[in-house]
Amino acid sequence: MQLEPSFPEIHDTVQKLCSQFPSEYWRSLDAQRQYPGEFVKELTDSGFLSVLIPERYGGSGLGLSAANAILEEIQRSGCNGGACHAQMYTMGTLLRHGNESQKERYLPAIAAGELRLQAFGVTEPDSGTDTTRIRTKAERQGDKYIINGQKVFISRAGHSDLLILLVRTTPREKVANRTGGMSILIVDIREAMDNGLSIKPINTLMNHASTELFFDNQGIQHSPGPRLRTLH
Ligand SMILES: Cc1cc2nc3c(=O)[nH]c(=O)nc-3n(C[C@H](O)[C@H](O)[C@H](O)COP(=O)(O)OP(=O)(O)OC[C@H]3O[C@@H](n4cnc5c(N)ncnc54)[C@H](O)[C@@H]3O)c2cc1C
């Protein structure tokens, strides 16, 4: 038995959009290790990458099922949702834990396609499945956080303006519960590049634009009000 699609209009429109990007497009990009900029622009201009952003910030304010319908249709049509799906799954972090000034600063620009939020940095060389072992740390110095550490397998960092970054603000040994002492920061990659942050591509099997990130005394401005969230 086949289930009726929940969003037939989304499936239809995404399918039409994807038909402009046949297999040859993806094969040629993969061979050249290039990012599908035209495909991502088309999705952005059509509003599909901002479905989870509330209407007051310029998105369409839909829920996860709509986002799921979009990504499902992209993959079904033979396109690569992995090129841009982070803009969907990082959104919950920003919406739930970002403060108002962060939302006003970033969300309308993301919805308008002026800013890409396509990267999130969690995994490290010595911390994969057990996230609590991350060692990248951010230390508060005045109105800045100074970040030191390394992330690995970070997809699309070279094609994103913003990075959602998981760091330790209190060492694991100093917290009662090992899941405590971690914080999430928003890093503006454009400002951070060559200013403490360096990005090295990793050649993975598929066109996933994977990278390694090296933070060497990279400073980011402390945002007024609570940072995204500190887990204690
Ligand atoms: C294409 C690609 C893109 C990625 N993009 C990103 C990204 O954008 N951002 C990001 O932060 N990360 C990214 N990752 C990293 C990914 O999240 C990690 O690979 C994942 O968290 C697993 O970590 P690991 O590779 O270190 O494996 P490990 O943690 O070393 O695990 C290896 C194997 O051991 C198993 N295992 C681990 N611990 C236990 C245990 N206690 N008991 C039993 N079995 C166990 C695991 O299930 C797994 O099969 C990406 C990875 C890939 C391959």
Write structural notes for this entry.
With 232 residues, the protein is an alpha+beta fold. The protein has two domains: 8-89, Orthogonal Bundle (Butyryl-Coa Dehydrogenase, subunit A, domain 1), CATH 1.10.540.10; 118-231, Butyryl-CoA Dehydrogenase, subunit A, domain 2 (Beta Barrel). It is 30% helix and 24% strand. The chain has a four-stranded mixed sheet. Strands 2-3-7-6 form a four-stranded antiparallel sheet, with no helix packed on it. The mean pLDDT is 90. The protein binds flavin-adenine dinucleotide. The site of flavin-adenine dinucleotide has 12 residues, from strand 1 and strand 3.
Q: How many strands, what sense, and barrel or not for the largest sheet?
A: 4 strands, mixed
Rounded average pLDDT = 90
CATH class of the largest domain: Mainly Beta
CATH superfamily of the largest domain: Butyryl-CoA Dehydrogenase, subunit A, domain 2
Biggest β-sheet: strands ordered side by side in the sheet: 1-4-5-8
| Low-confidence sequence ranges | none
